[in-house]
Amino acid sequence: xxxxxxxxxxxxxxxxxxxxxxxxxxxxxxxxxxxxxxxxxxxxxxxxxxxxxxxxxxxxxxxxxxxxxxxxxxxxxxxxxxxxxxxxxxxxxxxxxxxxxxxxxxxxxxxxxxxxxxxxxxxxxxxxxxxxxxxxxxxxxxxxxxxxxxxxxxxxxxxx
Length: 160
Description:
The chain is 30% helix and 14% strand. By secondary structure, the chain is an alpha+beta fold.
C-alpha cells in the first residue's frame, strides 16, 4: 500500500493517519525531588566552575615564556613577574634533585638544557610534545595531540 515504506533491510513501517494520545502519570515519588535539593544545585555548580587548573612542565613553561613570549610566570613571594632571563637559571636549578645552586657553571649535559633543547627542537618542527614518563621514555611526539591519535614517536634523551 502507499502507507507502507520499505526499508533497505527488508522491514516495513506503516504510518497510521490517526494520531492517538495517551497521558502517562507516575505515582512514584522517586521522580519528585524536594525543593531544598533543587535550590542547592546552583550553588554547587557555581563552586565547581573554576576548579580546573593548568599544569605545565618546566620545558613547556620556558618554551611559552621564552620561545613564544606568550606566558608570564608570576612569583607569589615577591609579587613580581619572573622574566625569561631569570626563569632559565631557576628551572635549571630545579631540574636537579635535590635542587642545585644556580651559580654552578653551565655544563653541556645540564638536565634542563638538554631536555629543553629536545623539546624546543620538536615543537619548532610542529610536533605536539608530551611527557612519556608513563611509557618509560622522555617524550612522546604527536601529530595533533593525544586526544586525536596515538603518539607517532617515543623519544629517549641520551646526553653525550
